[in-house]
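Batch manifest, entry 17 of 40.
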Amino acid sequence: MLEVLQDQVPGWLAEIGRNPWLRSGANLLLYLVLARFGGWLTGAVLSRWLGSDSRRLTSTVRKLVLRTVALAGVITSIELLPIGARVASLTLAGVESLLILVWVAALITGGRLLLEGASGRRTAPNWVRPTTVPLLNNLMRVLLALAGAYAILMAWNVNVTGLVASAGIVGIALSFAAQDTLGNLFAGVAILIDRPYQFGDYIVLDSGERGQVTHIGLRSTRLLTRDDEEVSIPNGIMGRAKIVNESGGPYTKYRLRVKIGVAYGSDIDQVMAVLIHIAADHPNVCRIPEPRVRLRGFGDSSVDFELLVWIEEPALRGLALHELNCSVYRRFAAEGITIPFPQRDVHLRDHRQPGQAPSAGLAGPDQSP
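Output type: structure tokens
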């Protein structure tokens, strides 16, 4: 058997070398074997390097290598065939277009997987976050689609100079027609990347609106107020506004200030002790940091104190302030501490000389019978 093969193989090789169709088929078969081997080797290396957590990314890269080598074999095999230049050119353009589509699809899938994986890591940059992944993914798709379309047109020898010039003119016209929309769009991108606030944060704008962030879009941001009213604010305004994020910082706790005035002559040590006890007994007041009392000043009618406490989240501000005010009123009444109200003493002086009649507009003695 081996002797027969040894005798036949040189003849087969010689026949393949003389016949372009057989040479093209052998070339394609060789590339297909290389494609299978390259796909297997790529999958094995990436699985060992990336681990089992990146199976989808490994599968995407493995398929890309396999299909790229296989299509490269198709291209080289077509070049070996004795066909007309016109047919060969059209066939090669079609195969190259398919290869470009394979690369664009693989890059889109791989880029999306990389963004999703990077967004969950603590060491990821600020612009790669779960909130920015959809935006970056869409932007990447658009750019890769445009690059792929350009490459396909070049593969078919299409002159793209006129198309690029027309697209530039159309883009300029659209930019002038949609200035506000584009301004909101770029502001939305900046908000998603810079993250001055996030979903669920309580923010206060310099115009007075206060609410919880329920949606951050490319055009607008939505706030849900304590009156259950949804306010939609364009991102262009949000980008220029002064924003106080009550949920920002390393903690979600919110500092509450309760202002109280007591009458002059009150025992300030007693007042401070009562206020501390009121804060300590309240269920929504945090124990750490501890409540504290500060004497802020001397008003026209009262000695002004401020009770400083921390609550778990800004949403409890209204309820906690109401309950603390009620407790202060009840405890002060029980302790005999007076909460004064504004008073004014009016002193009237009579500047008339003895025996002088009252001037016009001033009431004289009652002359009625």
